[in-house]
Specification:
339 residues, alpha/beta, 10 helices
C-alpha cells in the first residue's frame, strides 16, 4: 500500500470521505494530536484500527463529530451540566463520556455501555468530519504505546505503507490529547487530564472530581490513555522527581561514561543550565502550555538522537501541568502493570 500525504482541500476531503465510507482508515489532524479515523458504525473498520495500531482490545476509542452534530443519535442521556460543558469548551480539546445508545459498533467502547465523544476545534478536522458526515472513531495516529503524533510526518513514520491517506493539517497546537470527562453520573469526573482542566470544568459545571489516572489489574479502562506505559519513545527513559537535578545529572554522567548517547529533559531554566555546562539537554519550555505543546515532539527527537533520555519532572501542580506530568510519567514508565 502507498500512503499518500495530502494537504486538506476539496480533492483530499473527497478522497477521505470515499475511504471512510468504504470501510477504510484515514489519519487526520486535531488541535491536540493526529487521529487514526474510521467509521464508528463499521465493525470491520473499527477492528482495523486496533489491528493497525496493535492496540489492546480493551482500550476504548473516541467518536469525533462535527460542530452541531445531533448527539441524541448516538448517546442516551445528557445531563444539564454536560450541556454547560459543551457550551463552555466545545469545539475544543474535551471528550465527554456519555451513556451510549448502542448505535455505534460495540468494538468502539470495548463492550462498555458508554461512548466517548469529542468535537475537535481544528478547522481541518471539522472539514473532514463534515465531509464524511458520520461519527469517526479515532485514537491517536501512532503505534500502540509509542509517542503520540503532532505532525503528519510523525504519522507517516509509524504508518507508512499501512494506511492509504494522511490529511496534513500542519503542526498540532495543543500537543497532548484531549481531557476525557465522564458525564454519566451526578457530576463530571476527569478520567484523563488535558488542556481543559479539572478546575475549568468545576467552574462551568459546579463540581468536578478526578479519577485515578491509571487502571489497576483486572479493571477496565473507560477512557484511552489509562494504561501504565504509554506515549513512550523508543529509547530508554529515566524520570527524576521535581528538584532532583543532582540525581538526573549523576545518571547522565554514568550513562556518558558507559558510552551511551544521553540527553537530559527539563523545563527551560534547567535545560539552559545543562547546555551551558556542555551537557546535552532538551527544553520543555517555561509554561505548562509550552510544555504540553512541545513534549511529544521532544520525545520523538529523543528517540532519534539518544540511547537514554533522563527527565526531571517540572515544578508546579494543577491545571494543564496535571496533563503534562501525566503524559511524562507514562512515557517514562517501565512496566504496564506495577509489581
Amino acid at each position: 500500500m502507498i500512503t499518500k500525504v495530502k494537504k486538506i482541500d476539496a480533492e483530499s476531503l473527497a478522497e477521505a470521505k470515499e475511504i471512510i465510507l468504504s470501510g477504510g482508515v484515514v489519519a487526520f489532524p486535531t488541535e491536540t494530536v493526529y487521529g487514526l479515523g474510521a467509521s464508528a458504525f463499521d465493525d470491520g473498520a473499527v477492528k482495523s484500527i486496533f489491528d493497525i495500531k496493535g492496540r489492546p482490545n480493551d482500550n476504548p476509542l473516541i467518536a469525533h463529530v462535527y460542530d452541531g452534530y445531533d448527539l441524541s443519535r448516538i448517546v442516551d442521556a445528557d445531563p444539564p451540566y454536560a450541556a454547560a460543558l459543551r457550551r463552555a469548551f466545545l469545539p475544543g480539546p474535551l471528550t465527554l463520556v456519555y451513556p451510549s445508545r448502542g448505535k455505534v459498533s460495540p468494538r468502539v467502547s470495548c463492550g462498555l455501555d458508554t461512548l466517548a465523544v469529542r468535537v475537535p476545534s481544528h478547522p481541518g478536522a471539522q472539514a473532514f468530519l463534515r465531509a464524511v458526515g458520520i461519527p469517526v472513531v479515532a485514537p491517536s495516529a501512532n503505534l500502540s504505546k509509542h509517542v503520540s503524533p503532532t505532525s503528519a510526518k510523525h504519522v507517516l513514520d509509524d504508518f507508512d505503507g499501512k494506511i492509504p491517506l494522511i490529511l496534513d493539517g500542519g503542526e498540532c497546537s495543543g500537543g497532548i490529547e484531549s481531557t476525557v470527562c465522564d458525564v454519566t453520573g451526578e457530576y463530571p469526573v476527569v478520567l484523563r487530564p488535558g488542556l481543559v482542566t479539572r478546575e475549568m470544568i468545576a467552574k462551568a459545571a459546579g463540581r468536578c472530581e478526578a479519577s485515578a489516572e491509571t487502571v489497576r489489574p483486572g479493571e477496565r479502562a473507560k477512557s484511552p490513555g489509562m494504561m501504565y506505559k504509554h506515549y513512550s519513545p523508543r529509547c530508554r527513559t529515566m524520570l527524576f522527581p521535581v528538584g532532583d537535578r543532582a540525581g538526573a545529572e549523576a545518571a547522565y554522567e554514568r550513562e556518558k561514561a558507559a558510552g551511551s548517547r544521553a540527553f537530559l529533559l527539563g523545563e527551560e531554566k534547567l535545560a539552559k543550565a545543562w547546555n551551558a555546562r556542555g551537557m546535552s539537554a532538551f527544553s520543555l519550555g517555561n509554561t505548562p502550555g509550552e510544555m504540553a505543546a512541545r513534549l511529544y515532539g521532544l520525545l520523538r527527537e529523543a528517540e532519534r538522537r539518544a540511547d537514554v533520555l533522563i527527565a526531571v519532572e517540572p515544578a508546579g501542580d494543577g491545571g494543564v501541568m496535571t496533563g503534562v506530568k501525566n503524559r511524562l510519567k507514562k512515557a517514562c514508565a517501565s512496566e504496564d502493570i506495577p509489581h
